[in-house]
């Protein structure tokens, strides 16, 4: 079974530009979540999608957005890039999502997209 | 606010030594997950604990969740260079998934 696939692996952008990152979940997984990882802040939750609907959102500005398609693939977009957006962006998929129900399936992560903003 | 506190932040051990990493939450956890990360790569799922007092082992790694479901430990027996990396605990609080700050493990041959 193929794992979570993220593309591209590396990106270099300049301030003010926008960027789109892609994530293909494990086959059969309908939940996709995104995380930002930086040395200073660690892993921070961006948002989670399930069945094409955003189920939860972390504390990030509106410049960060995402969407999920009917085949569960997800994209994340960051507009008006800032230097502080440089980070490793990780996507994870799982069978279930937890809102009022207890999650009983772990997150499976891709290898991430390394974004550098200059 | 940081939901999960991990300790220590870093560990340097000689190959063959045992070590323990701790993860503490101020809230009762629905589930506690352990992951390992190589620098710049994704997280690899190690184990999931859900029940108070639960203990799981895989190869030389054992994870435990305390009875109150607020603290977990990850124990590595007879460490090897392949164990090197960053270990993160993660928890599902019902609204979202939180991660600890990570413990960087270096194993000296």
Percent of residues in helices of chain B comes to: under 10%
Helix content of chain A: under 10%
Indicate the overall shape of chain A: globular
Mean pLDDT score of chain B: 90
SS elements, strand count of chain A:
11
Structural class of chain A: mainly beta
- Largest sheet entry of chain A: 7 strands, mixed
Number of helical elements of chain A: 0
The ordered string of helix (H) and strand (E) elements of chain B is EEEEEEEEEEE
Please give the radius of gyration of chain A in angstroms: 14 Å
Distance between the termini of chain A: 37 Å
Kindly state the mean pLDDT of chain A as a whole number?
Answer: 91
Q: Which chains make the largest contact?
A: A-B, 27 and 24 residues
Structural features, described:
The complex is a heterodimer of chains A (118) and B (109). Chain A is mainly beta. Chain A is built from no helices and eleven strands. Chain A has strands at 5-7, 10-13, 19-24, 31-38, 42-50, 53-57, 64-68, 74-78, 87-94, 108-109, 113-117. Chain A starts with a strand and ends with a strand. The mean pLDDT of chain A is 91. Classes of the chains: A mainly beta (118), B mainly beta (109). At the A-B interface, β5, β9 and β10 of A face β4, β5, β9 and β10 of B.
What's the SSE blueprint?
The complex is a heterodimer of chains A (118) and B (109).
Chain A: E1 5-7, E2 10-13, E3 19-24, E4 31-38, E5 42-50, E6 53-57, E7 64-68, E8 74-78, E9 87-94, E10 108-109, E11 113-117
Parallel strand pairs in A: 2-11
Antiparallel strand pairs in A: 1-3, 3-8, 4-5, 4-9, 5-6, 7-8, 9-10, 9-11
Chain B: E1 4-7, E2 10-14, E3 19-25, E4 31-37, E5 43-49, E6 55-58, E7 61-65, E8 71-76, E9 85-92, E10 97-99, E11 103-108
Parallel strand pairs in B: 2-11
Antiparallel strand pairs in B: 1-3, 3-8, 4-5, 4-9, 6-7, 7-8, 9-10, 9-11
């Amino acid at each position: 079974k193929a794992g979570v696939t993220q593309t591209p692996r590396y990106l270099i952008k300049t301030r003010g530009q926008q960027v789109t990152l892609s994530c293909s979940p494990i086959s059969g997984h309908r939940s996709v979540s995104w995380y930002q990882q930086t040395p200073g802040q660690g892993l921070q939750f961006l948002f989670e999608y399930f069945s094409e609907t955003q189920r939860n959102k972390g504390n990030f500005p509106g410049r960060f957005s995402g969407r999920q398609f009917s085949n569960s693939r997800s994209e994340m977009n960051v507009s008006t890039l800032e230097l502080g957006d440089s980070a490793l962006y990780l996507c994870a998929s799982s069978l279930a999502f937890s809102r009022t129900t207890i999650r009983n399936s772990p997150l499976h992560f891709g290898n991430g997209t390394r974004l550098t903003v200059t | 606010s940081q939901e999960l506190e991990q300790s220590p932040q870093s560990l340097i051990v000689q190959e063959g030594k045992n070590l323990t990493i701790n993860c503490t939450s101020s809230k009762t956890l629905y589930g506690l997950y352990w992951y390992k990360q190589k620098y710049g790569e994704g997280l690899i799922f190690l184990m999931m604990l859900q029940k108070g007092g639960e203990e799981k082992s895989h190869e030389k790694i054992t994870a435990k969740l305390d009875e109150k479901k607020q603290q977990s430990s990850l124990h590595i027996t007879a460490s090897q260079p392949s164990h090197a990396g960053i270990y993160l605990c993660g928890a599902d609080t019902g609204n979202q998934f939180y991660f600890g700050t990570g413990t960087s493990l270096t194993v000296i041959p």
